[in-house]
What does this fold into?
Amino acid sequence: MRFLLSRTDALGDLVISLPLQARILSREPGAEIHWLVKPYAAPLLEHLPGIAGVHLRGTNQELFSLMREGGFDAVLNLFHRDPAVTLAARDAGIPVRVARARGFAQIRAATHLLWKGRIGSGRHEADNVLDFLEPWGWSGGWPTPPALVVTEAERAVGEADLAGTPHPRLAVATRSSGSSAYPSAAWWARAFPVLAGAGWHPVIVAPPEDSSLSAASLRGLMGRLAACDAFLGPSTGPTQMAAALGLPVLALLGRSPNRGPSRWTPLGAQVQVLQYPTPEADLEGGMDRLDPADLLPHLERLR
It folds into this structure.
């Protein structure tokens, strides 16, 4: 069976959707897995076993051509805000089209609809993604943690990029590119001396404009992450990437149901989560209420 898994939004969403591929292949080892992603996210999928093809989300005309020519048996539109994926699949006559029940046109175009809500449900986003396998009876159960692959050459380049930073290196992402909560620059200015005093050597790896390192490609960022000993950051793509690369991760997560740990905790063997101590709104300085010293017990457990 030839599947097209469409995840045309953010990096972290793509990483947290990888358990879907693992579940399909565990149930049907001969399945052919294709991904449809935004061009900036495609490098994440390089070197991953089990992927037959990676397709870039371009214009709607290119999307309709892909659906007609791809020979897919099933399309799973994981990002409901891209309804053209489901419409193009219907136009191509693809037998199984799974989508969320968001928007009248998409509801009409899908063969199978997911009516479950995600926000405030208390379910992890990886569980929400596995729901797309309900037509085959393959949903449910704990998802396999995602695993990204870095080559030895990429790891060596990352090591060279960080040669001026001694071990133990603590990779840091200071901000989220989305709507998630994160500490202010002033909070980080207080936190870095505390981290250094505990023996860590923080290095900002993301976003590029906050880092003293030269700009790197997405694969270059992965190499730099692999050259570090642990990771610290809010709910953002690099945080999910670090966990999927097997790094010990301390994730700073918000308190609202849509941004909290029940939905967005990175899946990995060595993940700690820290939330700010009071119930105020995430995006009104909540993270700045953290005492930087509260990071240290969590990081010590990761060390």
